[in-house]
Structures are given as structure tokens and as C-alpha cells.
Write a structure and sequence with these properties.
- About 35% of the residues are buried.
- A hairpin with a 2-residue loop joins β4 (about 35-40) and β5.
- About 35% of the residues lie in helices and about 25% in strands.
- With about 700 residues, it is an alpha+beta fold.
- The structure holds one RNA strand of 75 nucleotides.
Length: about 700
RNA sequence: GCCACUGUAGCUCAGUGGUAGAGCGCACCCUUGGUAAGGGUGAGGUCGUGAGUUCAAAUCUCACCAGCGGCUCCA
């Protein structure tokens, strides 16, 4: 007879099997009504699951004890909402075949195969939502039943969906001896679905929902398999939470770097220039320049040497590196030499012949560089190197070009031309550990000064089952071990992920999320034993023999484009003084103060501060509003009172009221210091009570 | 590359077959002001591109280009 241990440690004993709901009732009717599911020995289950043996039981309600949303409750809710949506869709489009419909962190989806002559369109959403509302209003129970595998598979077969049959086979292969089904209502009478569950007790528990969007997906994520339609929705226990969720999405949109990029004039993408090609407008260029200067200074401290290399290189270079022709698909088409084209043409070469030549790599010409390493390798190799010269650290803000699929392009975060803060370190095997640590400390320095702490670290290892990697397994083992050890010294948690290595070596990546929760890889540090091999690099050791150096590729920002895209969202466009394109705007109260405002602006310009003046014929209230909307760090209001005392009235971004008046000279030196120290010293600090 | 949606003034958007609209921004005028929008006047658009249907297309159809969301990909 079951003894049930509750989360507070108390034990309830029963002399007969009971459902979790019964247990809840034994505690209180209100609790039982509030329950949507339960955890039995930590496993999420239906509320009416019958308990026969001793176990721990935790009841799942909408909110946890500390009044937070319970992720388990939302999981049950959204999984159930997916069923309701699927039923509604099948009512409206009877030929639709269900594939897979899981809950997600904030939403759920259902992958569905629609008949070719009746695809789903956004215009159908309203009708589907209306059907869903009906089903919810009927408050039908989610009823689980289980069939022996043989019997169950017969049932699934009779329904004639290869997708569900596949799901059943997979469940079986995973070791399941039976198949479970959920009827929305009464089995055999109401709509039902092969599903492992669990669900909320009944459809009526779905308080608020919304169908969000349509997307296409591939069956099993395989692009050669069937194309499915993925319908996204979200659900909450009440309308208020749904509303709050939708408002959060709206707020996130305002932080989106593509929206802010336009509003603050940071960058421009022009379709006549080409998709995925960023034009840095003056404001964005300031941010990029500041960051580049900052990192250059850090690199100098670490003993790097800056180099410059061209944007193209001969195809032979990339044959040696392995980029051409094996990664032709993700590179821009080669630039073919004119003489070679003429020769081909004289030989009667057709377009398809040419395409074949390119695919096989049998042409001469140049390529837009997809990576900087081959050029840097050639700089290393341009002179003999002694072990005493190592490590050789070559750095370049190098622009590279990659042919990303059109559907992948995204603002500044996924582009076809981008500038990496790239460097390649050539060192002895013994030096790897120390050099890796140097790279990682650089990354930490940068993230710290920018206040970016919300990132994760991934150690990318090779996939043991794949053959896409070049190089000796023994070298890979060494390199992977070096990455692991370096990651351990970083002092932040990291995950090891097989299959995430580059084709030439393992790596450590820094990954951040954008405003809508998408992950982007920023900085990366990679160990490479292979390119030195391919290019036959060497140095002379103490033994007077030739030895092979090891390369480390590293780019702590990743690319200027992606990094600044993420940075715009990180700061929500409100950049600190050292990065702000417009650091100070002077707002004369009226035309009468224009002359003094000009003087103030000149004083700031004289010390290198980026200041402008708003001499529009408007009231100061309007100028403040405009200046605030442009997220300018400091607005200086200057009127006759200020002119008389050679002072400025200071308003800092993000503060409701102004900070007060300050002598002009003091402000100039204070903001200069804030700029120089990247915010460690701050104009605001001068307004502490003691200073005034 | 795939599926859906979107493309109208510098920006944000309304307009669903019959003479192109609003707000902001811009120019000019009035106003000369003290901490988040003073008032007025005006300029500004081949409605993404190309074809088709129609007496008539921003609006309907097709193709292409681009953007957005997702899938796949990211050496």
C-alpha cells in the first residue's frame, strides 16, 4: 500500500492505490482544483495517474510556492494547447497529418503535413482560434489510455499516417512496450492522438492562447526529407499573462538592433549594394572605431603585431588550405582570370562545363577570402623562424566574405561580408596552454568592460562519427585536451559539445543571446595542428632541426558586425560615453543662448568629445525629448543663467530630473575622464552630495 | 535553399478596383522659451521591380527582388 512522501517531508499513507488528484483532495479541495499535474518521483505525470507504490509526490499548480510561474505547469499547458490546436486544424483541414507537437520554453508548435492542394495560411488563424476556443469551452478531459505495442501499432496503421507510424516505431525502438494515446474527451468518440503525455486535466484549463506564426520545417530535421508546416502558438493560464508575454515581445522588438540601427542611424543595408553587406554609417563607424582602437591597444599589451592583407587571394592558396573547392558552396564564386576565360571560350567551353570545372576546382583565378588564416600563414612563412621568435602573434581586422544562404541573413548578426578581429598565433606545442589562456583573458577583459556577463562557453569537439575533419587523430586528441584545460582556467561553466569543432581543429566559443532569444556565436579560440601541416610551416628549434609550429586562431569579438549587433541590443542603444556616437548634445534655451552653446560645444570638441548642438527653433522640452530618444549620454541645457556663470545644466540619460548645474570647465574635465576611463570615472559622481 | 507573411513619403504606418493619406522628421514664418512634443504654412511618393487581367490596378494574377519569422546550414 502506497506511502507517499510530499515535498515538505510529510508522509501520507493509503491502504489502496490512489490518484495524485485523490492525494491533493486529501489535503484540500482548493488545492486539488488548482492542480494541473504532478511529479511522481521527479517525473512529470497526469494528475489522475494512479499511484500504487511508495513514491515522492509533488503537486504541480500554476504558480510555485513563491508565486512564480511553474515551468512544469506551463509545459503541461502548452503541450495540451498543441493538442487542442491540432484538433482545431484537423477540423478545418481534414487531410492534415500530424507529425510532432512539443511545448517549448515560451510557446509550442505542431509540425503538420498539409495536403498539397490545401496549405495552411495565416488567414486560417482566426478560424482555428475560434475552433480552439470551442474545444476549450467544452472543457473536455484529456484521457490517457495505453495499448500493448502490437495492438497499438495496428491502430496507428489503420489511421494511415506514416508520420505517426514512424513516431510509434521510434517509441518502440526506444524501449517502450506499449503505446499511449490521449483522447480529448472520450476514447473512441472524441479526437485523439498518439502521445506520451502528460497533459493538464482538461481543455478548460487553457486560459489564454494565441497562434503566433507559420514556418516550414523538415521531417526529422533532414532537408532531404518531407517538408512540413510548423505552426507556432503560445498559451498561458490566464489572459493577463498572455498579454504580458505579448508586451514583452513588443518591448524586445524595440531593443532589436535592426530597429535601433535605423532609429539611431548606426548602419544601413542597401539591396542595390547586396543583401548581407553592411554599410557602416558615421554613427556606427564611431562605435566600431572605438572598439577596434580598444582591442588594438589590448593586443599591443599582449605582444601582438598588426598586419594588413588583401581581400582576395589566388585559388591555389585556398587549394592548399583546403577551402577550395571543398567549401565552394559557402563561398562567393571564384573570380576567374580573363585570359583563362578566353582560353576556355576558345575551347568551346559551355556554362555547364565551366560550372563543372569550378566544382572540381580545375580553374585558375582568385577568391574573395572566406578566412584570414591563409594570408597570415604566408606572412609567417615569409621568413625563417627560430624557436626564439615564437610565439608569433599576427593580428588583423580582416574582412572576409562567405556565401550564406539567403534565408539565413539577419541584420548585422548574419551577413555575407564581415570583419573579424582576427589573429593567428604560431607557437610551439608547449606554448599552447599559455597562449590559449592569454586569448581567453582578453575575451574576459572585453566582456567585463562592456558589462556582458550573460554568455555561455562551449568547447567544440570533433564528432567521432564524421569524416569531415582533416588531420591526425593523435593531434586532435592533443588539441582537444588543450581546449579543455584552457576552458577550465576560465572560471566559468562550459559545456563540451561533440560535432561543434571546426574542420581543422577544436575550439572554444563564446555564445550570447539576442533580444528574441536566438543564440549567436561571438568570440572563438581554436587550436589548429592541420593548417601548419598543409602549408608545411616550420621553425628551427634549439636542436637546429626543423619543427612544426601549432596555430591558434582567435577572434574575441567574432566579427565587428555581429558583435556590434549584439552590443546594440545589450545596451538597448544607450551606449556608454566611450562608445556613444554622440556623447553630448548642447541645448540652448533660446536663440539668445546660441552663442554660449557654441562656446560650450567648442570647448568639448577641443578635448576630443563628440558633441553637437540642437539649435532648432523649439522649446527646450522638445529638445530634451529628442535628445533622450536618441539616447545621448549627456544633454547640457544652457541658458542665460548658465552663460553668466560659465556653467552648464547637466542631464544624464536615464535620469528623470537633471543632475544640476556644474561649471563648464569641470564638466569638460569630468566627461573627458569618463571617456578616457571607459566609465570607471563618471560625470555623475561629481554630483554626489559631498561634491556639491 | 525551403514554407508563410510583408514591401505605400526620410521614419512609423492607414488605404482592397475609380483623382495617393496621417503622424513624426524636413523647409519657411510666428513664437525667445529653464528640464520628455508651442502654433501656422509648405515641400516631399512611377505605391519594391517586371509582365498580365480590366474601360480603369497601390488594390486582382504570375514571375522576380528584398525584408521578417521559423527550418536547414554556418568550413
Amino acid at each position: 500500500m502506497p506511502q507517499i512522501t510530499l515535498p515538505d517531508g510529510s508522509i501520507k499513507s493509503f491502504d489502496h492505490p490512489v490518484s495524485a488528484f485523490d492525494v491533493a483532495m486529501s489535503i484540500g479541495e482548493r488545492l486539488a482544483k488548482a492542480c494541473v499535474g504532478c511529479l511522481i518521483d521527479e517525473e512529470l505525470c497526469d494528475l489522475n495517474t494512479v499511484i500504487e507504490n511508495d513514491c515522492t509526490l509533488s503537486l504541480v499548480t500554476e504558480k510555485t510556492r513563491d508565486k512564480q510561474d511553474d515551468p512544469n505547469a506551463l509545459f503541461l499547458l502548452r503541450h495540451s494547447a498543441a493538442h487542442v490546436m491540432a484538433e482545431a486544424i484537423q477540423r478545418i483541414i481534414p487531410g492534415a497529418m500530424l507529425v510532432y507537437g512539443p511545448p517549448l520554453e515560451n510557446s509550442f508548435y505542431y509540425d503538420i503535413a498539409f495536403p498539397e492542394d490545401r496549405p495552411l495560411r495565416e488567414g486560417d488563424f482566426e478560424a482555428i482560434e475560434a475552433e480552439m476556443s470551442k474545444i476549450i469551452k467544452e472543457d473536455r478531459p484529456f484521457t490517457r489510455y495505453e495499448l500493448e505495442y502490437a495492438e497499438g501499432i495496428k491502430k496507428v496503421e489503420s489511421e494511415g499516417s506514416k508520420y505517426k507510424l514512424d513516431n510509434a516505431h521510434r517509441a518502440h525502438e526506444a524501449g517502450s512496450l506499449s503505446l499511449t494515446f490521449y483522447a480529448t474527451g472520450e476514447p473512441g468518440k472524441d479526437w485523439e492522438d498518439l502521445c506520451r503525455g502528460p497533459h493538464v486535466p482538461s481543455t478548460g484549463r487553457i486560459g489564454a492562447f494565441k497562434i503566433m506564426s507559420l514556418a516550414s520545417s523538415y521531417w526529422h530535421g533532414d532537408e532531404n526529407s518531407d517538408r512540413l508546416t510548423r505552426v507556432y502558438g503560445t498559451a498561458f493560464f490566464n489572459k493577463k499573462d498572455l498579454k504580458a508575454h505579448l508586451e514583452r515581445l513588443e518591448e524586445a522588438k524595440k531593443r532589436d538592433h535592426r530597429v535601433l540601427g535605423k532609429k539611431l542611424h548606426l548602419f544601413h543595408i542597401d539591396e542595390t549594394v547586396g543583401q548581407g553587406l553592411i554599410l557602416w554609417t558615421p554613427n556606427g563607424a564611431v562605435i566600431r572605431k572605438e572598439l577596434q582602437d580598444f582591442i588594438s591597444a589590448e593586443l599591443t599589451k599582449q605582444g601582438y603585431h598588426e598586419v594588413f592583407t588583401p581581400h582576395i587571394g589566388k585559388l591555389d592558396l585556398y587549394r592548399t588550405s583546403g577551402h577550395f573547392p571543398y567549401y565552394a558552396e559557402s563561398q562567393f564564386t571564384p573570380l576567374i582570370e580573363r585570359d583563362f576565360m578566353v582560353k576556355l571560350s576558345d575551347e568551346g567551353c559551355s556554362c555547364s562545363h565551366l560550372s563543372n570545372y569550378i566544382n572540381k576546382g580545375e580553374i585558375d583565378g582568385f577568391m574573395l577570402k572566406p578566412m584570414n588564416c591563409p594570408h597570415h600563414i604566408k606572412i609567417y612563412d615569409s621568413q625563417p623562424r627560430s624557436y626564439k621568435d615564437l610565439p608569433v602573434r599576427l593580428a588583423e581586422f580582416g574582412t572576409v566574405y562567405r556565401w550564406e544562404q539567403s534565408g539565413e541573413l539577419n541584420g548585422m548578426t548574419r551577413v555575407r561580408g564581415f570583419t573579424q578581429d582576427d589573429a593567428h598565433l604560431f607557437c610551439t606545442p608547449d606554448q599552447i596552454g599559455q597562449e590559449m589562456q592569454g586569448c581567453l583573458s582578453l575575451v574576459k577583459t572585453i566582456f567585463n568592460i562592456l558589462g556582458m556577463s550573460d554568455y555561455r562557453v562551449r568547447v567544440g569537439l570533433r564528432d567521432p562519427d564524421s569524416c569531415k575533419y582533416t588531420g591526425e587523430p593523435a593531434n586532435w586528441d592533443k588539441a582537444e585536451q588543450a581546449c579543455r584545460e584552457a576552458a577550465q582556467t576560465l572560471g566559468v561553466p562550459f559545456t563540451e559539445e561533440p560535432g561543434e569543432a571546426a574542420f581543422y581543429g577544436p575550439k572554444i566559443d563564446f555564445i550570447v543571446k539576442d533580444v528574441i532569444g536566438r543564440e549567436w556565436q561571438l568570440g572563438t579560440v581554436q587550436v589548429d595542428y592541420n593548417l601548419p601541416e598543409r602549408f608545411d610551416l616550420s621553425y628551427i628549434g634549439a636542436d637546429n632541426e626543423k619543427h612544426r609550429p601549432v596555430m591558434i586562431h582567435r577572434a574575441p569579438f567574432g566579427s565587428m558586425e555581429r558583435f556590434i549587433g549584439v552590443l546594440i541590443e545589450h545596451f538597448a542603444g544607450a551606449f556608454p560615453v566611450w562608445l556613444a556616437p554622440e556623447q553630448v548634445r548642447v541645448l540652448p534655451i533660446s536663440e539668445k543662448s546660441n552663442e554660449y552653446a557654441h562656446e560650450v560645444m567648442s570647448a568639448l570638441h577641443a578635448v576630443g568629445i563628440r558633441a553637437t548642438m540642437d539649435n532648432h527653433d523649439q522649446r527646450v522640452q522638445a529638445k530634451i525629448k529628442n535628445g533622450s530618444e536618441m539616447k545621448i549620454p549627456y544633454l547640457l541645457i544652457v541658458g542665460p543663467r548658465d552663460a553668466q556663470s560659465r556653467a552648464v545644466s547637466v542631464r544624464a540619460f536615464g535620469t528623470e530630473k537633471d543632475l544640476g548645474q556644474m561649471p563648464l570647465d569641470n564638466f569638460v574635465s569630468a566627461i573627458r575622464e569618463e571617456y578616457r576611463t571607459k566609465g570607471r570615472s563618471c560625470v555623475r559622481d561629481r554630483f554626489t552630495p559631498t561634491a556639491v
